[in-house]
Amino acid sequence: MNDAIQLENLTKRYPNFSLDNVSLSLPRGCIMGLIGKNGAGKTTTLKLLLGLRRPDGGKITLLGLPLEGHEAEIKSRLGVALDDNRFSEAFSPKDVNRILRLVHSRWDETYFRSLADRFGLPWTMPLKKYSRGMKMKLSLSAALAHRPELLIMDEATSGLDPVARDEILDMLQEFISDGGHSVLLSSHITDDLERVCDYISFLDKGRLVFSEDRERLRERYGVVRAGQSALAALPKDHILGVKQGSLGMEALVDNRMELTAAHPDWVIDPASLAEIMVLYGREK
């Protein structure tokens, strides 16, 4: 099987929210960005993937194995770096190494030390003296040190300075460069996703809007900026959202290439991921 992740009709119901029949796949050797507004279902999806919640329906397959019945084996091949630091503030990288080498049978102490050195993490300094960026680099180093095949990250670059973000994104691209490793990256920083992701999956109110190749998205979705009377000429079934801007109206449209071919006088810019998130489903 060539997919690192396969979700088939994944469903999870809560009293005030439901993740509804989400199906997507992440090929090996690729990075997928998971986007959506707060409350869209990203965290629920990640918890289901990590076995922290049980689905009410559907199937999760990771690294060719169904999660149900193979959770221990899958987790041994999985790396996880979450937004919040899970290590004690009193720990140093040396302490993290000492503990995790007892937990992971595949822990590579030499590799972990090399990652810490690469990221400039003082080996014996307690985490309470670390910056947020340093803590995130330590979390990534720990996630990689047992040589996982699939890396799952939640808001890995949120709140970091541009240099720290660049270092982490470079590491992710190196990680998948051999074609056998994959990354699922949930983030609100769409610029980072546009830089490194091969695929983007967009959740909105618990439903999957799309899961597509990044380049295909540039062809498919566009933004039209015009007055209200001009926008009235757009086919209604192509309009996915409209917003009143400072200089007129902005409309998110589907089938950008088709509209451009049919109306060469219209200016339809490719939609950025941020514009898709802001405009989708919006009504003026």
State Rg. 21 Å
Spatial order of the strands in the main sheet? 6-7-8-3-9-10
Mean pLDDT: 93
User: Number of DSSP strands?
Assistant: 14
What percentage of the residues does DSSP assign to strands (E)?
25-35%
What order do the SSEs take from the amino end to the carboxyl end, as H and E?
A: EEEHEEHEHHHEHEHEEHEHEEHEH
Tell me about the biggest sheet? 6 strands, mixed
Fraction of residues in H or I helices: 25-40%
Q: Categorize the overall geometry.
A: globular
Give start-end ranges of low-pLDDT stretches. none
- Count of discrete alpha- or pi-helical segments spanning 4 or more residues: 11
Rounded to the nearest angstrom, the distance between the terminal CA atoms is 45 Å
Which secondary-structure class do the elements indicate?
A: alpha/beta
Written account of the structure:
It is a single chain. The protein has helices spanning about 40-50, 70-75, 95-105, 110-120, 130-145, 160-175, 190-195, 215-220, 230, 255-260, 275-280, and strands at about 5-15, 15-25, 30-35, 55-60, 65, 80, 150-155, 180-185, 200-205, 205-215, 220-225, 240-245, 250-255, 270. By secondary structure, it is of the alpha/beta class. The strands form three sheets. A six-stranded mixed β-sheet has the order 6-7-8-3-9-10, with helices on both faces. Strands 2-1-4-5 form a four-stranded antiparallel β-sheet, covered by helices on one side. Strands 12-13-11-14 form a four-stranded antiparallel β-sheet, with helices on both faces. The longest helix is centred in the middle third of the chain and has 14 residues, at about 160-175.
